[in-house]
Amino acid sequence: MRRAISLLACFALLLLCGQLAAGEEIHTFVQCNPGNCGAFAGELGSPAAGAADFSPDPWIMNFITGDALTWHQNGTEYDATFGVGGDFEIQGKNGESFSGFITGGYSSSDTQVGGQLVSVNFVGQWNNSSYGYGDAFVATEGGGNIGQARLDVYNAPEPSSLMLLVGGVAGLWRTRRQFM
C-alpha cells in the first residue's frame, strides 16, 4: 500500500510540473506594410533593432541588440553578429507582456536596394512569471515599404519546476527498484 501511494505521489508530481511550466507559446508571421514593421541592421558595429505589429494576431514586438561582436562593411553591404545583450519585449493586446534579453543574432543591409534584415534569439519572462525563449526576425526592402516579420516563442520551465521534475523522476526510479 505504501508503495502504491509513493507511486501515485510521484505521478501527481510529474503532472504538476507540466502545469507549472505552462505559459504563452507564439508562432506568428506577417507580411509588412509601411508602418507595421521596421528593421535597422546597425552601422559600423552599432546596435541593430527591429519592431513589428503582427495584427490581426494580438502581438507587438520591439527589440534592440547590444553593440556588434563582429561587423563587416563592403561597399553598400553591411553585416554584423551580436552576442548577449540588449532588450526584447512583446506586448499582447489583452495585457500580456514579455520582457527579456537577446542571447545572439545577426543583421545585414544593402543600401543599394534599401534592404535591412535583423534576426535574434532571446530569453525572458512573461508577466505571469512563466519563462520563455525564442527567435524573431524582421526584414524590409525599399526603405521599409515591404518586408516580413516572424516571431516564435516557446515555453521554458522555471527552475523550481525542473527540480520538481527531477524529484518526480527520482521517486519513480526508486519506487520501480523497490518493486523489483
Task: Describe the structure in your own words.
With 180 residues, the protein is an alpha+beta fold. It has one domain. It has helices spanning 2-20, 159-179, and strands at residues 26-32, 37-40, 49-53, 59-65, 70-74, 77-82, 86-92, 97-110, 115-126, 131-141, 146-156. Strands 1, 2, 3, 4, 5, 6, 7, 8, 9, 10 and 11 form an eleven-stranded antiparallel beta sheet that branches. The two termini are 15 Å apart. Mean pLDDT is 83; it is low at 3-21.
> Could you describe the largest sheet, including whether it forms a barrel?
11 strands, antiparallel
Total number of helices: 2
Q: What would you report as the Rg, rounded to the nearest angstrom?
A: 22 Å
Proportion in helices: 10-25%
Domain tally: 1
Strand content bin: over 45%
- Label the structural class: alpha+beta
User: Which H/E pattern describes the elements?
Assistant: HEEEEEEEEEEEH
Task: Show unreliable segments.
Answer: 3-21
Query: Tally of extended strands?
Result: 11
Please report the distance between the alpha carbons of the first and last residues. Answer: 15 Å
Report the mean per-residue pLDDT as an integer: 83
Shape: elongated
